Amino acid sequence: MVSKALGSYTYEKSPVKFAAVFITDPDQAEPVGVQLSGELAKVSFANLLQLVRSGGLAGKITISQGARLGAILIDGGLPVHAEVEGLVGKEAIFEFFLWKSGTFSFTEGIAAAGGRTIFLNTAGDTYDTFDRLLKDGLAYLEAKQYLDELGVGPDSVLKVVEDKDRGDYARKLMTNPGLERIDGVRSVSESLSHLSLSGRELTLIIADWFAGGLVQLARMPGSENSVELPEWVVARLKQDNQDLAKAIVDMVIWVDRVKCWMYQTDADFMRIINSLKTEQAAAGQANLQDTARAGTSAGSISVSNAGSNTGSSTGASTGASTGASAGASAGSSTGANTTANKSSNSGTASSVSAYGGAAGDVTAPAKPPI
Fold first, then answer.
1. Which of 133, 128, 127, 186 is nearest to 155 (CA)?
2. Residue 231: its pLDDT value, please?
């Protein structure tokens, strides 16, 4: 797609956006202000260099990947200086070959005369050429990917593969400097520290040793805690980030955040439950107190009623007993007196009878005449 606005032409063709701004002064026909921008996921770094080289451009390439930032100065289509994360010159260029994601932008301008750290020859029969730079960068990328698949890095511990032919083993040591220091105990970076190798050189050497069957993994730092991830897990992690280590780190951070949210939720839930339990306990205590008060009142009433009933019964029994005793005593006394009187009368009659028998018949005196 081509769009024109205010004396400029913008060519937008995925994955690279190209813009050329033209001066409207008729005396100047040369375009200035050429700009390129895009994503490394769609345009590799090698293709970006070739694009700039084919145009013979001069200016600055800025590349960013998250917090990482680097820059390359271009003159005549060739890189003349580069820097990123402490690396300068060709080593910085080689580091950019490993960037699979990020964004880039090129702004045309005149490269600074000073500070040149990369010197490339334009003749095809010399070593330091643009084509050679591309080949070395792509070889570095291939070796790094190979070691990543094996799970090998600078902190890996290697051991030399045993060879029964001692003569052949000696030749291998002579043709591979540093191999004699691989002891299966120290990391590979520690074992080869005396050689003062760059990261790219160390990667190429280790990859060459593995490809030739000279070394193998002895152990990885923390390998006792390592696990073999299923292929589908690896594939899923790489959907978020092609760098598996970073994908795992991101996943752990996300899981920790979820755990924090869950812990907070659990704490709030337990706080609510404890509050409800406290309210229920208080309500239960109040019910127990009410029940106890009701039981005390009922007990007092029962005891009072029982006392009254007992007193009445006791009084009645006592009265009945007393009355019965009194009646019995009175009856006995009356009966005795009656019997005594009857006995007395009987004695008198007997006496009269006795006297009559002795004197003969006794006649009662006649009732005097009126």
1. 186
2. 82
pTM comes to 0.54
| Cα 238 to Cα 232: distance, rounded to the nearest angstrom | 10
Q: Which amino acid is at 255?
A: V
Enumerate residues 6+ apart whose C-beta is below 8 A from 128. Answer: 119, 120, 121
Sequence spans of domains, the chain: 2-142, 151-226, 232-295
Q: How confident is the model at residue 5 (pLDDT cuts 50, 70, 90)?
A: very low
Among residues 44, 47, 76, the alpha carbon closest in space to that of 59 is found at: 76
Cα distances (Å, whole numbers) of residue 152 to 96, 188, 323: 20, 10, 122
Decide: 134 and 141 in contact? Cβ < 8 Å: no
Instruction: For residue 135, give the nearest of 220, 30, 46, 53 by alpha carbon.
Output: 46
Average pLDDT of the residues of the chain: 75
67/229: higher pLDDT:
67
Run of H or E residues at 65: strand 59-65
| Alpha-carbon gap, residue 215 to 172, rounded angstroms | 11
Question: How many CB atoms are closer than 10 A to CB 178?
Answer: 18
How does DSSP classify residue 153? -
- Give tens-digit pLDDT for 17-68: 544 433 334 454 454 566 789 999 999 999 999 999 998 989 999 999 999 9
Torsion angles phi and psi, residue 60, rounded to 5: -135, 135
The type of residue at 318 is: T
